[in-house]
Specification:
- The chain is built from five helices and eight strands.
- The protein is of the alpha/beta class and about 160 residues long.
- The chain has a single domain, classed as YbaK protein.
Length: about 160
């Protein structure tokens, strides 16, 4: 079935298979680039969207992916304290170089390079969440436990 997906989405499906996560990846006609767009397209609460924000360590240029509840604003000071260095929000070229995906489609797994992942503690309250699946038009439904497993992320307080 992977061949039915665009290449970037197929990479995510393959990565999920490696973790034996069989959640269905859904490709939508509407953009899911923002949490609001994703929630409208899926028919869920914005808070159930696991939005992906990529930062770069100022000193090390290390990629940091924050997977946050769609309603939360990220507190960059909390993230910087957690990763041990000041951070800057990554631009589109950096995001693609480090993760292999475009902004609006960065999944929690299957990245091109090693990425440190912080998972918003607020996502743990939901039975399931929706995350990007390699394209601004693709999403995957995961439990919070699956999200942590496939991302290798650690739970953190990241919201303002």
């Amino acid at each position: 079935m992977e061949n039915a997906y665009p290449p970037s989405v197929a990479k995510v499906v393959h990565a999920l298979d490696g973790y034996q996560v069989r959640s269905k990846v859904v490709v939508l006609a509407e953009s899911t680039r923002t949490a609001v767009e994703a929630a409208a397209a899926i028919g869920c609460q914005v808070a159930e969207i696991a939005k992906s924000i990529v930062f770069s360590g100022k000193a090390t240029a290390k990629a940091v992916l924050v997977v946050a509840s769609g309603t939360n604003r990220i507190d960059e000071n909390l993230v910087a304290a957690r990763v041990g260095e000041p951070i800057v929000k990554a631009d589109a070229d950096y995001v693609r170089e480090k993760t292999g995906y475009v902004i609006g489609g960065v999944p929690p797994t299957g990245h091109l390079n090693a990425v440190q992942v912080l998972v918003d503690e607020d996502l743990l309250q939901f039975k399931s969440i929706w995350a990007a699946a390699g394209s601004p038009y693709a999403v995957v439904n995961l439990t919070p436990e699956e999200l942590l497993r496939v991302s290798g992320g650690i739970v953190a307080k990241v919201k303002k």
